Amino acid sequence: MGAALAACVDGQVLWASEGRSQATRIRAEEVGALDRGDLGSLVASADIVISVCPPGAAVDVANQVQGLGFDGVYVDANAVSPSTTRRMAQLFSRFVDAGIIGPPPSSSPSRDSAPSGDENARITRFYLAGYEAPAVAALFSGSPVDARVIGHEPGRASALKMAYAAWTKGSAALLLSVAALATAEEVAEELAREWDLSIPELDARLEQISSGIAKKAWRFVGEMEEIAHAYGDAGLPTGFHSASAELYTRLADLKDDRTDRRADDIVDILLHWDGSPGD
C-alpha cells in the first residue's frame, strides 16, 4: 500500500532504506522514491511524512519521527482506533488523521461515467481529517486515489476506517469461524446445503475469503485489536473483534503464503492450531 500510494503523489517521494528488505528497495525504486538512507535524514528532508505500517507499529513510528524533531505535517494513515490517533496527534503541531479504504491504487478510475458498485470497491479512498488535510489531499489530485477531507478533528478518519473494517474483516472472521464450528460438529455438508437454500451467496463468499486471507491474516490481528479498543471507548462490547484477532492469529503463520487455499484448508488450520504465535 505504501509504495502504491507513493506512486500517486504529485511531488518527490523520499524513503529510508536502513533496515528494510530487498523487496522494499525494489518497490521504492519502481516508484522513483529517493533513498535518504536512514529515518533521521529522511525526516530532515521531508515536508510531509505519511505513515503506513502495521497497526501495532504506528505509535512507535510516530514517536520516532517526533523524537527526530520533525516539524512538518505528520499523516498517520494506519488502521488504529480514534483514541490511539488522538494520542499521536498530541506529538505534532501539524497532524492529519487518515484512513485508507480499498485496495492499493493501480489504475485510474473511469471518468466517463459514475463508477459501478464493483468499480467503487476497487477504488482507493483516502479519508483525511485535520486542518492541513486539504494540502495532503492535493498531493493526490488527478491520481487513482480518491482523497476526501471529512473534517478538522483528528480521529474522524480513523473512526470511519474502524467502522468499515469492523464489518468487512470482522464479518470475514465470523464466517470462517462458522465454517470451522460446522466442521468440528460434522455438519458442514448440511450447512452448505442449507446455505444453498436460504443464503446462497455465503458459500461463494466463504471460498473467496479463504483464497485471499492466508498471506494477509497476520496484518489483521492488530487491526482487530484496535477495533476492539474503539468499541470499548464507545461503551460497546469488545468481544466480537477480540475474538476476530484471535482467529487471525491462528492464520498468522501463513504470511506470504503462495498456496491457493480453499475453505477446507483454512478451517483445518483453525481447528488444529497448536497455540504457538505466528511470525
Strand order of the largest sheet: 3-4-5-6-7
Order of helices and strands: HEHEHEHEHEHEHEHHHHHH
Please bin the fraction of helical residues: 40-55%
The first-level CATH class of the largest domain is given as: Alpha Beta
Count of DSSP H/I helices: 13
Radius of gyration: 20 Å
Looking at this protein, list some descriptive labels.
Rossmann fold, five-stranded mixed sheet, 279 residues, 2 domains, N-(1-d-carboxylethyl)-l-norvaline Dehydrogenase, domain 2, alpha/beta, globular
Concise overview:
By secondary structure, this protein is of the alpha/beta class.
Descriptive report:
With 279 residues, this protein is α/β, with parallel strands linked by helices. The protein has 2 domains: 2-153, NAD(P)-binding Rossmann-like Domain (Rossmann fold); 160-271, N-(1-d-carboxylethyl)-l-norvaline Dehydrogenase, domain 2 (Orthogonal Bundle), CATH 1.10.1040.10. 51% of the residues lie in helices and 11% in strands. It contains 13 helices and 7 strands. The protein has helices at 2-6, 22-30, 39-45, 58-67, 82-89, 117-122, 133-138, 156-184, 188-198, 201-213, 217-233, 239-249, 263-271, and strands spanning 14-15, 34-35, 48-51, 73-76, 95-101, 124-129, 145-149. A 5-stranded mixed β-sheet has the order 3-4-5-6-7. A two-stranded parallel sheet has the order 1-2. β1, α2 and β2 (34-35) form a beta-alpha-beta unit. α8 (156-184) packs across α12, α8 packs across α13 (263-271) and α11 packs antiparallel against α12 (239-249). The radius of gyration is 20 Å and the shape is globular.
